[in-house]
């Protein structure tokens, strides 16, 4: 921020933006008294931020106005939240206190601003602790814990913070690169999943696109231009596709509107990355949304009316059965309801069609805020109950005193990003549970006592073990016995946080038995590997598993919170006092790096003897030309990741003060980097020879491994090879793509 006298143009900008906000707020306010509170909040904040400017040079007051605009337009909150958004930086940036606001605007608005101020403080705080206590060293994770705890007090604080984050991301180009990377990583790790879970899809999509635009600028621009070109080419075809649908719906008496939608650059990029496909293979690029007013006088339910429209449009166009998504019958846990199908147009374009009632669309666009409105008015849909269940589950996690900050952040992140399935009780009641859950997870979902007494299950009338993994549509019956009790073995296959917590708590009361079990597990594992445990090895394990005592080690193994899967690897390490770099980052074994390095530029390939040691991360294997981010470890080592690497996102989100700005040195191209490319296509005689000849002889690239397999005339596989730059890799991918029979070539993870 900076200070300078406002000009007439500055005051005009503020007046213009506020006039737009006031017009939107007027529609949300129930009466003039509420609108008057918004007016007073604006006047107070405008005076408090007078002559203050943002990094961009524009008046600072434009920021809180923009945040309030998002709060009312994109989230649909009321006058108290609009006022809090206008005031959200006053306490942080001026001499006014929360008590000053409480006197002027009442307790609720002051409390919302107080929560927002605390979030801003913890996000902007760099790590300053230098002790060895883990709870001290986990400062940024503790900060996120405080943010998430505000959901337990008033979720509106988090909603306003999402609006604040969105506007900051809209203007992120004015930030220095290291600060930008920190903000974007936090955004992808926490705020985007949070927006998704709270049903704020428009905010989620915009944040994703901003993330991609700065993390992978070349990919973003290329995909955006391809999308723009497709829209221009196919615009008339989409109009022709919609016309028969409109005529049919009119004839059936529906009151509706149809919105055309195109896949976002991020959504297309993500599908290309996860599926390993080209842009041309993203067939669900186009979508239309049919939003209709449900007929309250009709005997048909909202669900029936959705199915009625589905039957009408599938009578006009062929649909793809495997792409049918019935979120009306089985709403998502964030309350989302809609019927999705993919239709083939007369011109050969696959178009996704989303069918929603007006209520469903409000919840899809406004998320939890719309959920509250409909709940208050007694208009609950199936999805509204799912939203309540999810919020209650999150609150249970947040108030658990036994979870430290790092564990909480991991649990919340996993919960936010988990895919869900839908299963049924013997009475036909639908329950949602995370993908990969077992029959025993389901038992604990029903009730803790059912879980404790479980001995087996029946899935679709077939007897299965408690470790049986469930899938969508399963009908699950839990078999119990009065004398049954939990087994430590359960922790090896339980996946849901609730179930693991209940079983862990059960064994805490039987710590000695658990420790004995853990000690025997460790001894058996060592014996199977021909290793004799001694004091030195046990101390090495304590360091590797980051525990403070032998009892804690045995107890963790017994509870299943410490896995022995990497036991052999730990034993083989020549040094027993160092953990892997990623583990050090996440566990904070050593003291934090000095704050002075934040934002410094590091040259990759520098011959300067004083330059830090560079390590290329094996999780994403960046090569020269890739957009990269660096993290300076406590020992001074800088590890280089791709900016879009998931590991990098989590590290930057928890330790923003470790971020440095790496730059590739031209001479680094003398070094080769290992990458993998995947190939798919039509098999023919000589295909392998042609591929290997081009890679080795034409490009002069060293192949480490070539694996191709063919079946029924099709082949797929991968090549691991060494390249010196992204430019070389891109040329190779382009050339291989032109070989007869090869349908797709893409870079993939090793």
Features:
5-stranded mixed beta sheet, 22 strands, 6-stranded mixed beta sheet, 30 helices, single chain, alpha+beta
What's the rounded overall pLDDT mean? Answer: 81
Strand content range: 15-25%
**Poorly predicted segments:** 125-138, 574-596
**Spatial separation of the terminal alpha carbons:** 44 Å
Count of β-strands: 22
Helix fraction by DSSP (H/I, runs of at least 4): 40-55%
- Structural class by sheet pairing and helices: alpha+beta
What is the number of helices?
A: 30
Main pleated sheet? 6 strands, mixed
Shape: globular
Question: Mind telling me the C-alpha Rg?
Answer: 28 Å
Tell me what the structure shows.
Helices cover 50% and strands 16% of the residues. The chain has 30 helices and 22 strands. Strands 3, 4, 5, 6, 7 and 8 form a 6-stranded mixed β-sheet that branches. The chain starts with a strand and ends with a strand. Mean pLDDT is 81; it is low at 125-138 and 574-596.
Describe the structure concisely.
The chain is α+β, with helices and mostly antiparallel strands and 750 residues long. 50% of the residues lie in helices and 16% in strands.
Write the layout of secondary structure elements.
Elements: E1 2-3, H1 8-28, H2 32-48, E2 52-53, H3 62-75, H4 79-87, H5 90-93, H6 98-105, H7 107-124, H8 134-137, H9 139-153, H10 155-170, H11 177-197, H12 201-215, H13 217-251, E3 256-262, H14 265-275, E4 286-292, H15 302-314, E5 318-319, E6 325-326, E7 339-344, E8 350-357, H16 358-366, H17 368-376, H18 382-398, H19 405-417, E9 420-424, E10 430-434, H20 439-446, H21 448-452, E11 454-459, E12 462-464, E13 476-480, H22 497-508, H23 511-528, H24 535-544, H25 550-559, H26 567-572, H27 581-587, E14 601-604, E15 614-616, E16 628-632, E17 638-642, H28 646-654, E18 659-664, E19 673-682, H29 687-698, E20 702-711, E21 714-723, H30 726-737, E22 742-748
Helix pairs in contact: 1-2, 1-3, 2-4, 3-4, 3-10, 4-7, 6-7, 7-9, 7-10, 9-10, 9-19, 10-11, 10-12, 11-12, 11-28, 12-13, 13-14, 16-17, 20-22, 23-25
């Amino acid at each position: 921020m900076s200070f300078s006298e406002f000009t007439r143009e500055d005051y005009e900008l503020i007046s213009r933006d506020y006039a737009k906000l006031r017009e939107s707020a007027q529609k949300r306010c129930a009466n003039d008294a509420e609108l008057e509170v918004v007016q007073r909040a604006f006047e107070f904040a405008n005076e408090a931020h007078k002559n203050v400017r943002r990094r961009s040079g524009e008046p600072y007051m434009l920021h809180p106005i923009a945040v309030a605009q998002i709060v009312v337009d994109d989230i649909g909150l009321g006058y108290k939240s609009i006022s809090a958004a206008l005031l959200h930086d006053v306490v942080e940036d001026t001499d006014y206190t929360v008590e000053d606001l409480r006197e002027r605007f009442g307790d609720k608005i002051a409390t919302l601003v107080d929560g927002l101020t605390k979030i801003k403080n913890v996000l902007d705080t760099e790590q300053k602790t230098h002790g060895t206590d883990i709870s001290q060293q986990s400062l940024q994770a503790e900060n996120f814990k405080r943010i998430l705890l505000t959901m337990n007090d008033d979720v509106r604080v988090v909603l306003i913070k999402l609006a604040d984050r969105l506007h900051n991301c809209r203007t992120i180009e004015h930030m220095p690169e290291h600060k930008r990377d920190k903000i974007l990583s936090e955004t992808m790790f926490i705020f985007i999943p949070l927006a998704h879970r709270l049903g704020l899809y428009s905010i989620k999509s915009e944040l994703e696109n901003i993330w991609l635009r700065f993390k992978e600028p070349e990919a973003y621009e290329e995909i955006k231009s391809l999308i723009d070109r497709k829209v221009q080419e196919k615009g008339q075809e989409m109009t022709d596709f919609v016309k028969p649908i409109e005529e049919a719906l009119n004839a059936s008496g529906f009151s509706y509107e149809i919105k055309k939608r195109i896949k976002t650059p991020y959504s297309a990029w993500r599908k290309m990355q996860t599926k390993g496909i080209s842009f041309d293979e993203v067939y669900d690029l186009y979508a239309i949304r049919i939003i209709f007013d449900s007929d309250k006088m009709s005997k048909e339910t909202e669900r029936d009316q959705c199915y009625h429209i589905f039957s009408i449009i599938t009578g006009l166009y062929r649909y793809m059965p495997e792409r049918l998504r019935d979120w009306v019958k089985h709403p998502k846990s964030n309350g989302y309801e809609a019927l999705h199908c993919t239709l083939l147009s007369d011109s050969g374009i696959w178009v996704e069609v989303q069918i929603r009632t007006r209520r469903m669309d409000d919840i899809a666009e406004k998320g939890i805020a719309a959920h509250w409105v409909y709940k208050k008015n007694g208009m609950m849909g199936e999805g509204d109950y799912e939203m309540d269940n999810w919020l209650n589950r999150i609150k249970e996690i947040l108030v658990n005193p036994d979870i430290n900050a790092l564990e909480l952040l991991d649990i919340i992140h996993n919960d936010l990003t988990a895919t869900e399935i839908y299963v049924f009780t013997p009475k036909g009641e639908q329950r949602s549970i995370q993908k990969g859950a077992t029959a025993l997870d389901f038992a604990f979902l029903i009730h803790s006592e059912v879980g404790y007494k479980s001995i087996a299950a029946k899935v679709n009338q077939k007897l299965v073990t408690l470790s049986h993994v469930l899938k969508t549509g399963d009908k699950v019956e839990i078999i119990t016995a009065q004398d049954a009790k939990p087994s430590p073995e359960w922790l090896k296959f339980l996946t849901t946080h609730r179930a693991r917590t209940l079983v862990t708590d059960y064994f805490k009361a039987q710590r000695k038995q658990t420790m004995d079990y853990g000690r025997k597990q460790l001894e058996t594992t060592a014996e199977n590997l021909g290793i004799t445990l001694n004091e030195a090895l046990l101390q090495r394990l304590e360091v590797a598993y980051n525990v403070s005592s032998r009892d804690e080690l045995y107890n963790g193994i017994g509870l299943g919170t410490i896995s022995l899967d990497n036991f052999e690897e730990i034993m083989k390490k020549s040094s027993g006092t160092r953990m892997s770099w990623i583990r050090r980052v996440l566990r904070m074994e050593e003291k934090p790096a000095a704050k002075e390095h934040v934002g410094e530029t590091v040259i990759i390939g520098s011959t300067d003897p004083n330059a830090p040691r560079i390590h290329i991360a094996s999780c994403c294997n960046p090569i020269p030309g890739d957009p990269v981010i660096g993290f300076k470890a406590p020992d001074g080592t800088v590890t280089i990741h791709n900016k879009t690497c998931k590991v990098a996102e989590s590290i930057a989100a928890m330790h923003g003060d470790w971020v440095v700005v790496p730059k590739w040195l031209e001479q680094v191209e003398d070094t080769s980097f290992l990458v993998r490319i995947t190939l798919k296509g039509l098999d023919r005689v000589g295909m392998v020879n042609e591929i290997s000849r081009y890679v080795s002889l034409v490009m002069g690239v060293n192949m480490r491994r070539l694996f191709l397999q063919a079946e029924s005339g099709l082949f797929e596989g991968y090549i691991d090879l060494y390249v010196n730059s992204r430019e070389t890799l891109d040329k190779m991918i382009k050339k291989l793509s032109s070989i007869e029979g090869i349908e797709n070539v893409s870079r993939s993870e090793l």
